[in-house]
Specification:
Strand content of chain A: under 5%
Shape of chain A: elongated
CATH superfamily of chain A: Tetracycline Repressor, domain 2
Largest interface: A-B, 52 and 52 residues
Distance between the termini of chain A: 78 Å
CATH class of chain A: Mainly Alpha
CATH topology of chain A: Tetracycline Repressor, domain 2
Largest sheet of chain A: none
Helix content of chain A: over 70%
Oligomer: homodimer
Chain lengths: 238, 238
């Protein structure tokens, strides 16, 4: 029963600690600029001990990315209660929280240049693993949206609207990170409206989409974001 | 003065021929699946002779990508005459022509997995060169749009609308390639409307954008795509 003595961590506990430390560093600067020495120092252990748990920076990066992906996907979960527009707005807030917390790492990853190791090459397996994680987050977002719309199987035009809107949300977040010249709260609301606008454009030319859109907006309150947008658009045109 | 004898090509001419042959092959199948042997065979020369002009598949891929980028950027050029909506629709048609012609290569490139050589690694320089070419095409699209809107320096919200719309056009084209379940003509028109819709959403909350939008639509004809969309949206709401 000793006190004041640092307890030795188990293997899995140490691995999880290292992943957390690495994720924090990879989030705050471009992963290319973070060294194993720095990770070891931040974790309070020696460089060889880091290698004992992870064969290299790349495997540690992949583990950190996996944790970040799971974290982000978890933020998409939202109770199926109340107007859909307000639900989407809450998810957008948590999405921008995530982007804010992981800014430089998120940018580096989404711009296609994650964690190239010191020898300047990266394997095909690494590229595939990274892309698979990005795709899994996009798929989680897609599945959540369909679930909130209560649609089991999306017709092609709805799939297009939802998936292309997800890419719009990604590029909007990336552009926001580059200088933060527009308040994020404005962009969170704008993305909710963009979703409605893209669905409306598709609905303007397709009956199936028009029927879907009517179902989507029928429970929106008169003081919710959708109604507000419509009011503002009408004012704009007059 | 011989006839019927194959003329020997000069170095630059041979290089250009090889780039054309390679681009054609890289466009029709995923670049990963195209071998130097195949390129040599399609060009009617020996494998060692290909290596005489290009040190490897990667440098040939980069050269082909450069030509494709220039080709695509050139298709954005459109006379500054007539309604802006109709101009954008013509550019969208040429954009989908390009995507159609280079389908598998375009998909592989935009999904972040271009031309990994046989040894399974790719250099940081290659990743940078590839990303720089993609960015140069996006920048060309951005510059063209601003020029057509007659805006020298875009305020942050307009820059966001234009750049995020460009990424929307990319993802829409990629989703279209994956099964072609929606007619491309519909998507070309939809993207023109999406541009107007995203600008309108931004304008609904910002006076500067509202003023810009009014300038943008003031010359649109009553039978043009913008007016048609507005009519259809109003019908949808009634």
């Amino acid at each position: 029963m000793s006190t004041g003595v640092r307890r030795r961590m188990g293997v899995e506990e140490r691995r999880q600690q290292l992943i957390g430390v690495a994720l924090d560093l990879f989030s705050r600067r471009s992963p290319d600029e973070v060294s194993i020495d720095e990770i070891a120092s931040a974790a309070g252990i020696s460089r060889p001990l880091v290698y004992h748990y992870f064969p290299g920076k790349l495997s540690l990066y992949e583990a950190a990315l996996k944790r970040a992906s799971e974290d982000l996907a978890a933020r998409f979960a939202e109770p199926h209660e109340g107007p859909v527009g307000a639900r989407l707005l809450r998810v957008m807030r948590r999405y921008f929280d995530f982007v804010d917390e992981h800014g430089p790492g998120f940018s580096a990853l989404m711009r296609g240049g994650p964690a190239v190791p010191a020898d300047g090459v990266r394997s095909k397996d690494h590229v595939s693993a990274t892309n698979a994680l990005i795709d899994s987050v996009r798929q989680a977002a897609y599945d959540q949206i369909l679930a909130h719309l209560q649609i089991a199987e999306a017709p092609p035009r709805l799939e297009l609207v939802v998936r292309s809107w997800i890419s719009l949300a990604e590029s909007t977040a990336l552009l926001w990170l580059d200088g933060r010249r527009v308040p994020r709260a404005e962009l969170e609301l704008q993305l909710v409206h963009d979703f409605a606008a893209l669905a409306a454009v598709s609905a303007a030319y397709d009956e199936e989409m028009a029927a879907l859109l009517k179902t989507m907006v029928k429970d929106e309150p008169a003081d919710g974001p959708f109604a507000e947008l419509v009011g503002r658009l009408i004012a704009l045109g007059s």
